[in-house]
Design brief:
The protein is mainly α. Helices cover 65% and strands 0% of the residues. The protein has one domain. The chain has 2 helices and no strands. The protein has helices spanning 5-42, 61-106. The longest helix is centred in the middle third of the chain and has 46 residues, at 61-106.
Length: 129
C-alpha cells in the first residue's frame, strides 16, 4: 500500500484534465479552420455564430487557419502546464520515497519495513450487546 493516496489521486485528476484540455483544444482548432472555410465560401457567418466571442473575427479561410493555430498553441501550452503540475506532485512523492529509503540504508538496515497500514474510512464497529 502506498502512502499519500490523496496526492496520487490529485495528480491523476490533473493528468486527466490535461488530456481533456488537449483534446478539446484540437477540436476547437479544427472547428475554427472549418468555420473559416465555410464563411469563406458562403460570405457571411451564421447569425447564431455571431454571438460566440471570437467567431465574428473569422471571415475567410486565412483567418480561420490563424484562429485554429492560435487555439492549438494555447491548448498545447495549457496541456503542458497542467501535465507538469501532475509531474511535480509525482516528483515530490518520489523524492519522499527515495529520501526515506536512503535514511534506512544509512542507518545500516538491510531492508525497508513495509509502509504502515492504511487508515480505514469507516468508523470501527461497536459490539452489539
Amino acid at each position: 500500500m502506498k502512502k499519500f493516496r490523496a496526492l496520487r489521486l490529485v495528480a491523476l485528476i490533473w493528468r486527466v484534465i490535461a488530456w481533456i484540455v488537449l483534446v478539446l483544444g484540437i477540436i476547437g482548432a479544427l472547428l475554427a479552420i472549418v468555420l473559416g472555410a465555410i464563411v469563406g465560401r458562403v460570405g457571411d457567418p451564421s447569425p447564431l455564430l455571431n454571438q460566440v466571442p471570437g467567431v465574428s473575427s473569422v471571415v475567410d479561410p486565412i483567418s480561420g487557419v490563424v484562429a485554429g493555430v492560435a487555439v492549438l498553441v494555447a491548448a498545447l501550452l495549457q496541456f503542458l502546464l497542467i501535465y507538469a503540475a501532475s509531474d511535480v506532485i509525482h516528483l515530490a512523492l518520489d523524492l519522499e520515497q527515495n529520501t526515506r529509503e536512503t535514511a534506512y540504508y544509512l542507518r545500516g538496515e538491510s531492508t525497508m519495513p513495509p509502509p504502515p497500514a492504511a487508515i480505514a474510512w469507516e468508523p470501527p464497529e461497536t459490539p452489539n450487546g
